[in-house]
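Quiz preparation item.
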């Protein structure tokens, strides 16, 4: 595993210097469970627990370690322990459900938030605006994705509506017909389930001829995409 593939960069390396001096190694939180965490490091995917000091400091959900966090792992002693958390570049927070509402972290250190909206009859600009407000408040860069354009008789009108929201930002087109056809084929011929699970989709996309650099360029240069 290469840390750069997970979002490691010079700024995070600089912030990690003091942790490295204490013999810790960097990792990124991939999953949060009630009893612990699963993290990625250069050694692969493995379970980790929260140090007692951090548990006592985490008095609310916002201060808790979350999926996406970069953490310092102590691998000595036989148990991988999360000893510290690096500063976050973005934090996606929502209100938790229940009689008493509180802040709940969905994910941390997200570069882009893809706001997917279908053009198959459920297009609602006001909802997109709410999603945009959520994205801007998180610190991540929002990208509106209008999919199912093949089911829409007037794509141009919907693109204009998004351009009004985008306030002069570009609305580009991302063409993924080959990927969509390939995934649809595997869905139809999946004997275990009709749902194409995230891990399966990722594996098939990695083995396909999709130009991921082109997709990254689209994300960086456009405020909204339709496909």
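Solution:
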């Amino acid at each position: 595993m290469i840390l750069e593939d997970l979002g490691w960069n010079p700024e995070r390396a600089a912030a990690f210097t003091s942790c490295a001096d204490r013999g810790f190694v960097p990792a990124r939180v991939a999953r949060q469970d009630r009893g612990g965490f699963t993290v990625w490091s250069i050694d692969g995917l493995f379970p980790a627990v929260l140090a007692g000091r951090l548990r006592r400091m985490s008095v609310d959900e916002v201060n808790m370690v979350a999926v996406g966090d970069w953490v310092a792992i102590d691998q000595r002693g036989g148990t991988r322990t999360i000893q510290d958390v690096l500063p976050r570049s973005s934090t996606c927070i929502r209100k938790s459900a229940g009689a008493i509402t509180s802040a709940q972290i969905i994910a941390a250190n997200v570069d882009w938030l893809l706001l997917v909206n279908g053009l198959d009859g459920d297009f609602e600009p006001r909802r997109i605006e709410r999603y945009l407000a959520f994205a801007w408040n998180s610190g991540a860069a929002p990208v509106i994705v209008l999919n199912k354009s093949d089911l829409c008789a007037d794509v141009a009108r919907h693109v204009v509506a998004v351009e009004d929201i985008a306030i002069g930002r570009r609305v580009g087109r991302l063409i993924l017909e080959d990927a969509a056809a390939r995934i649809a084929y595997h869905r139809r011929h999946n004997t275990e389930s009709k749902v194409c699970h995230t891990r399966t989709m990722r594996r098939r996309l990695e083995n396909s001829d999709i130009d991921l650099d082109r997709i990254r360029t689209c994300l960086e240069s456009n405020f909204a995409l339709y496909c």
